[in-house]
Amino acid sequence: MYIVCRQQTMAATTPILRIDLSSQVPVYRQIASGLRILLVGGGLPAGSRLPTTRELAMDLGVHRNTVAEAYRILADEGWLELRRRHGATVLDRRRPASGPEARARWTRRLEGLVAEGLADGQSVEALASALEAACDALREGRRLAEET
Amino acid sequence: MSPAASMTFELFTVGILLIVGFLFAAMPRLTRPSLYFAVTVHPSFRDSAEGRRALIRYRTTVVAGTVVCTVLAFLLRPGVHPFDGAGLLLMLVGISLAAFLAARRMVLPSSQEPTPQRDAELVGRRTRLPGGVPLQSLPFALLAAVAGLLLLRWGDIPARFPVHWGMNGQPNGWADRTVAGVFGPVLTGVVVCSLLLVVAWGITRWSRRPAATGPLAERGVRFQQLTRWVLLAAELFLAAVTGCVALLPCLPSHDPEMTAAVISVLTLLGVAAVVAVMVRAGQGGSRLAASRVANGAAEESLGDRSADHFWKAGLFYVNPDDPALFVEKRFGIGYTLNFGNLWAWVILSLVIVVPVAIGVLV
Known about the structure:
Low-confidence stretches of chain B: none
Shape of chain B: globular
Order of helices and strands of chain A: EEHEHHEEHH
Oligomer: heterodimer
Mean pLDDT of chain B: 85
Radius of gyration of chain A: 16 Å
Distance between the termini of chain B: 27 Å
Largest sheet of chain B: 2 strands, antiparallel
Largest sheet of chain A: 3 strands, antiparallel
Strand order of the largest sheet of chain A: 3-5-4
Number of helices of chain B: 9
Mean pLDDT of chain A: 82
Helix content of chain A: 40-55%
Radius of gyration of chain B: 22 Å
Order of helices and strands of chain B: HEEHHEHHEEHHHEEEEH
Shape of chain A: globular
Strand order of the largest sheet of chain B: 1-2
Number of strands of chain A: 5
Number of helices of chain A: 5
């Protein structure tokens, strides 16, 4: 369960990352997913400096390695450049060409996700609508507030 | 000792006792609504019958302890009797902490899990201290100026002179005209100011922001800033006091009793002012006016992002997995160390060892 949004704080709009420790999704995955949503949606443009793993771990009240793992996942995907003591910098990542293998992998994951939703009592229509809304928001670069 | 000076020191002791007693009595209402006697509770708990019963018992003990200590201060003439002001202060703190632990035991059965939702701003820390380098270096510049003046007036310094006074105003520490003896107070000032600067820096860099959005976030930011200003004011005050003490040997005609009395009164006023400012803000800024914080924001979450079992006796935070070095106190105003972090012990050692080393060496 995670929420990502960009909110009006005291001085200016600041990207906010939210996690839920009671969720069954591991915290490092919540952090990676939350950041990825912001990266895909343009909430964190290339060149943005993220907080250091220590700072983010302090604010979230989690272990530093948890944040480091999330940063590593995104660095492996080509989103972030990690530098010791300097936190992470968002890279100008080109969208990779989509092949049949990637599409098949995502179809399997989506099926799993839809099955989870159905098992959770959601209707097919509601899930389809939520998926469409999420895709639209990301495509348009809108601030996404997503709860899964 | 003159009657006026004696009265001043008695009033100083009584003033400190009353301030500490008031602070302890007010403390349960100064913390966030979801923290009560260092236990995470629902905000409505403190107004429940159980919550009120715990508070009444606690306050009754604290007020009784304050009255007893204050009466003893008048009867035993602090500073003259061996059972002096410091002993009375320790006694009052001991009584209050015992009352706190008893109240905490009453509240613990109503403990709740802290809110599992956490948020964080995805921007780096703004690490600028209030006033920037010019204002932060002012206490040290003041002490450097005193050191320069002492060098210039070296010939006027007597061979032996007092450097420390008890709470009765009588000198109880002496020094010779040596480099260590003359510059000891200046060195003490530098060390104490450095430690306070480390704390201010630590709160900025190594403490948790309580929230990223909403009233809690804004209050937290303002409280941190207020704490840093208070620390800077304390640095300036201590630099001024240690600087004045260092210069006293150059003023052979000064009245040590009067000097000690003036310092005592100024200390009392300074402590009272700090307490007033911090009480007005509340712990974590919890008492800051609602109209001055973010409007229409989300409700405050339960607790302070740490589970109750990490708080030993409600006073000591021990969580090796938490990278935060400074955390907001659950009972008290300001910050405490995360004793699960090795650096906390390094800082604590410095706070204890360095003053003792100076005392031994100077």
